[in-house]
Amino acid sequence: MSRSRSRGWFQKHSRDTYVRQAQAANYRARSAFKLAEIDEREKLFRPGQTIVDLGAAPGSWSQYVAEKVQPGGRVLAIDRLEIKPIDGVSLIHGDLEDPAVVEKIRDWLAGRPADLVISDAAPNLTGIAVTDQANMAALGRLLVGLCPATLKPGGHFLIKLFQGDELAAYVEELREHFRTVVTRKPAASKDTSREVYVLGRGYNV
Ligand SMILES: C[S@@+](CC[C@H](N)C(=O)[O-])C[C@H]1O[C@@H](n2cnc3c(N)ncnc32)[C@H](O)[C@@H]1O
């Protein structure tokens, strides 16, 4: 990015009300507000739950969830980027494609699978819409494939995807494994972004 373009992005980003709110609330990213909005509508989180946050860096979703599940809850955050420590959150540094990382998640769960598996994970973007959609869908398939090892029967799965040809097929696949599936576009998600969040409730293995 050229210096002038990067300055333009920075000025726009720092004017963003969600960025300012995130700074005020000590969240590491504005993404926390997308999750908060979905939670407000869907009533996902409550004390005592076990949550697995896939693709969690820098950690604002985990920060939000860690507050919601206390007392008695557990939160595990995983990313291939390092995540700075968060109160009440266990961390795994590694790639979700690596079976050794999945084994570490299972060890952490210790036979008590998650009430919710949540994912805001995104591949490195190329800027080519069709490629980014395909990469996102491939990542989405990898992550839903982790449900048998991580999510309890009856649990919920929330995942970010991109609008596009692959989305409808993905939603249909989720319907085979979840009692209900809905798509949400929170106001905190920029209109210019193709991201949407898909929520599957009631995992039936
Ligand atoms: C948009 S960020 C997540 C933001 C986070 N929800 C928050 O609120 O701070 C997407 C993350 O997905 C992670 N990611 C993508 N593919 C991954 C993979 N295969 N394994 C682990 N992390 C992955 C990226 O490293 C990146 O940190």
Note down, in words, how this protein is organized.
With 205 residues, the chain is α/β, with parallel strands linked by helices. The protein has a single domain (28-203), classed as Vaccinia Virus protein VP39 (Rossmann fold, 3-Layer(aba) Sandwich), CATH 3.40.50.150. It is built from eight helices and seven strands. It has helices at residues 3-15, 17-24, 31-42, 60-68, 99-109, 129-144, 147-150, 165-175, and strands at 50-54, 74-79, 89-93, 114-119, 151-162, 178-184, 195-203. It has a seven-stranded mixed sheet, sandwiched between helices. Helix 6 runs parallel beside helix 8. The longest helix is centred in the middle third of the chain and has 16 residues, at 129-144. The model has no long low-confidence stretch (mean pLDDT 93). The structure holds S-adenosylmethionine (SAM). Residues 27-203 form the Ribosomal RNA methyltransferase FtsJ domain. It holds the Pfam family FtsJ. Its EC number is 2.1.1.166.
